[in-house]
Amino acid sequence: MTDRKITSKNLYLLLPGKVSKMAMMYASDFGLSITEALRRIYQSATYRQLEDEKTKLWHYGPVALYQIFLEQN
Fold first, then answer.
1. What's the domain range around 42?
2. Is residue 50 a part of any domain in this protein?
3. Tens digits of per-residue pLDDT, 2-34?
4. Which of 70, 66, 72, 62 is nearest to 16 (CA)?
């Protein structure tokens, strides 16, 4: 069986799905384009924390991550 441990080397595989769902919520809630919502998320402190495997923020689903994003911005 393959080791399926999440590490800093493979974390990037999980992030696009979470971020795309966050962007859809953000764009809908604030009347932004998806492109602008993605830009703001990718430039946020929340995303910097999310891409750091040590924070374990990647354990959260898109809704919880979106709430964290809103609180930090």
1. 11-72
2. yes
3. 668 888 888 888 899 999 999 999 999 999 999
4. 62
- Residue 40 domain flag: yes
Count how many domains the chain has: 1
Task: Tell me if 6 is assigned to some domain.
Answer: no
Residue 58's contacts (CB-CB under 8 Å, 6 or more residues apart) are: 6, 11, 14, 15, 18, 50
User: Which residues, including other chains, have CB under 8 Å from residue 34's CB and lie 6 or more apart?
Assistant: 23, 24, 27
Asked if residue 3 belongs to a domain, the reply is: no
User: Crossing angle for the helix pair 15-30 and 34-42, nearest 10 degrees?
Assistant: 120
pTM: 0.88
The first and second tokens of residue 21, run together, are 């769902």
**What's the full length of the chain, in residues?**
73
Average pLDDT score over residue span 44-48? 97
